[in-house]
């Protein structure tokens, strides 16, 4: 299989890289062992939630924090990319999501406060249209959940959210309500099940009728992310227009409806752009000559070998958590190209919630995201590293995972398509 750009991995960074390269009219192929992490992830873009990382409160404005980070931590992925590329990446994502019919709201320069599935407040830079309402703008908030759903507890969310909002000096009254779908469920439903049920008008009407009895003016209605799968626009509109109040969907435990919508929308866009997708294939051999990757061989689940030859390669295999970096008792190994992994992978902090040294581990890169060796010398000039494979950041304590995926994926896709930055 011949192509201009071969993307290895199908998480957010890989799909964004593929979309960018395809937008340059390059022939793009994506190969992956699984379907990527978006189906389980929130689908919200966390850019930089805490900086310094030990800060007690989340950032609201982020530009100054990013400028400090770029100066103080030159190996951080945001420093490698630079402020201009960060802006370009978020502008691109905004245009792309509008094009694919699943628009996002927000900016990398300012965080929004989003409740989690247990009522904690988490910072996010960009959110789906169904979470566009701003939490602090409403004097009354109603958290509603479904009796038939087994992984969301509205009273727990409301109680914790009320406490968090007081800490942040947000003066809103938070209440909770159980609702019933009115169906004979033979099992405890998850968020995906409920989302499918709410695409049925009769079920929606029963739920809306229950809410009409308690909804007051100036109320924000918070619900788990269950407002439909493919017909989410119709479902959200029916609630908001009948109740005359905005809805805010918040992330739930996997399976993630918001992550599913984003993943499926991106994949549909890639197929429209003639990107070829190969699932359930594992890279088993790499051909390296004179500082370049000349091709790779991947093996499908049926044992068939597929040979790929690309001009450029983007490694988006998800680091340690995604299986792209294998951690053994005696060694640490990047699985595809055998690139040296930098960082203290065996070091840890006894405080679980503190910064963990191994979180920074990954592959060090040039300013153009090409991998380097232990001495900082470029290894391959046509291989680009993105997402969780990158060295120098902690996505957990700084809340930057999807932000780094977006920015690095955008930059790698552009570099692989048009060449090095000037």
Structural write-up:
The chain has helices at 12-23, 63-72, 77-81, 83-99, 154-167, 191-197, 201-212, 232-243, 257-272, 319-322, 401-418; strands at residues 2-8, 28-32, 104-106, 112-115, 121-124, 126-128, 140-146, 173-179, 219-224, 247-250, 276-279, 281-289, 292-300, 305-315, 325-327, 332-334, 383-385. It is α/β, with parallel strands linked by helices. It folds into two domains: 2-103 and 261-418, FAD/NAD(P)-binding domain, CATH 3.50.50; 133-245, 3-Layer(aba) Sandwich (Rossmann fold). Strands 1, 2, 11, 12, 13, 14 and 17 form a seven-stranded mixed β-sheet that branches. The protein has a four-stranded parallel β-sheet with strand order 8-7-9-10, sandwiched between helices. Strands 3-6 form a two-stranded antiparallel ribbon. Strand 12 (281-289) and strand 13 (292-300) form a beta hairpin. Helix 1 runs parallel beside helix 11 and helix 7 runs parallel beside helix 8. The two termini are 31 Å apart. The model has no long low-confidence stretch (mean pLDDT 93).
